Amino acid sequence: MQENFTFLGKITQGLVEIARIPEIQYQYNPRDLVFQRDKVKLYHYHPKVKKPISIPLLVVFATVNRPEILDLFPEHSFIGRLLENGMDVYLLDWGYPDAKDKDISLNEYVTDYLDHCVRYILENTHHPKINLLGICQGGVLCLCYSILTTNIKNLVLISSPIDFQTKDNIIAQVFKKLDIDAFIKLVGNVPGLWLTHFFISLRPFELVGKKYLRFVDQIADREWTARFLRVEKWLYDAPDQTGASFAELIKDFYQQNKLIKGEIYLGEERIDLANLIIPVLNVMASEDEIVPVSATRGLKKYIRSEDYSQKIFPSGHIGIYISDKVGKSMPKAISNWLKKRSL
Amino acid sequence: MGKETKFDFNTNWYELWTQQSKEFFESAEKNLKGLFTQEAKINPEEHIEQINKWLETLKKHWQFTALNEQQKIHENYWKIMAKMCSDASDMMVKQWIQRGKENHPIENIRELYELWLNCCNEIYTKAMHSKSYQEAYGEFMNAAMHFWKSAQPK
């Protein structure tokens, strides 16, 4: 029974460690805030090589989580490695919407906020086009933007759903009959913590039970614990979602699968995937349960890009940015693909 | 009276896990009294009655018996959850016995707990991919929303 006593002691020690999370500060590779519109911020990272490729790369994360995951451990982060591979990186940060922002729609995210950030980069770097990298739902926004404008030279998508109703898309199945209007009426903006709880509810024994068991097992390893707590801080830091944009995401994308049907409208503009003609690199994570490979890999058949590539990495939806397995290979593959097309 | 009804999203998952894992350890210690101290390598088949009695206690944690009228709409969801718990318990006992036969026995409650989590994970993952659970979960979310909506001050 001594072992049980020790284990219960470690659980209590874990409580002390978890209580430290609010004190933990995010760290970043050196960067400057270069532009801001309302709560949306644009950062420019300091290049890590003497001559980065001249065409800037704008990275756009999903609104549903914080982009800090891309630079969580700056010494070997996704963004850090893009910089090491010669990219000139900008990052769009959607911020934390509050009650005043509840009416911000996907249209405004794309044609106002994203467009302003792209235009800032174009004007300040004197390039006619930039490269765009969109992640998850941020990838969907980038895809729409690339169809609507001529500002983008190359488009990279990571874990970006296209067909929202493939059989193994668990989220789509659960949300099939979700009364989103009642929900939005009830909450206004969708709390980020609700989303976090929802994602946990898809794999609770993995993301709570087994995860915390590993945590208390490793609790004496200070370095491991510090890394764990930083990821934990990120996990529970999901921003609230504006009611309008979240309702559109659920109704138009998940429930009616309008993107592949060509029925999405941003303002007056119809999003016709067949109008996407620029080079596209479509990146997927083989163990992704949030955006399964099946939701993503069909893109090629809907677009007209003659230069289309896809790559699948052995990881999960979030692990792809922080795992040792693909930590180096994914940013390198993306950088190489962009370099060849940025001459 | 007069207190506003609203969602509480501030679940602390670590505290919740702490509570649940402690319950597992305490009930295992109480119900499997002496099993792991008497013999270094126990054969669960010889103690199956004692183990099943303990499992009945464990299963109660997944049962939601006191449903009021408004909560009745959740019944299907809780029935599926209870079935999953029962399946996970059966799987755990089978694997516990199997590990003994393969000379890789469970030697303490910590190991038994890990086996329990693995079995729950396997059963839940399978259910999550099933149409019946996906539908029940979707209905559960809608019902919860409508409940909170009706509970809001007019």
Q: Give the helices and strands of chain B as they follow along the chain.
A: HHHHHH
Unreliable sequence segments of chain B: 1-5
Largest sheet of chain B: none
- Assign an overall shape of chain A: globular
Helix and strand string of chain A, N-terminal first? Answer: HEEEHEHEHEHHHHHHHEEEHEHHH
Task: Give the neighbour order of strands across the main sheet of chain A.
Answer: 1-2-4-3-5-6-9-10
Total tally of structural domains of chain A: 1
Strand-residue fraction of chain B? under 5%
Instruction: Work out the helix count of chain A.
Output: 15
**CATH-level-2 architecture of chain A:** 3-Layer(aba) Sandwich
Cα radius of gyration of chain A in angstroms = 20 Å
How many strand elements of chain A?
10
Q: Counting H and I runs of at least 4 residues, what is the number of helices of chain B? A: 6
Mean pLDDT of chain B: 82
Query: Considering DSSP H and I runs of 4 or more, what fraction of the residues of chain B is helical?
Result: 55-70%
Q: Specify the biggest β-sheet of chain A.
A: 8 strands, mixed
Structural class of the helices, strands and pairings of chain B? mainly alpha
Give a brief outline of the structure.
By secondary structure, chain A is α/β, with parallel strands linked by helices. In chain A, helix 2 (78-84) packs across helix 15 (329-340) and helix 6 (180-187) runs antiparallel to helix 10. Chain A is built from 15 helices and 10 strands.
Pick out its properties.
heterodimer; A: 343 residues; alpha/beta; Rossmann fold; eight-stranded mixed β-sheet; two-stranded antiparallel ribbon; globular; B: 154 residues; elongated
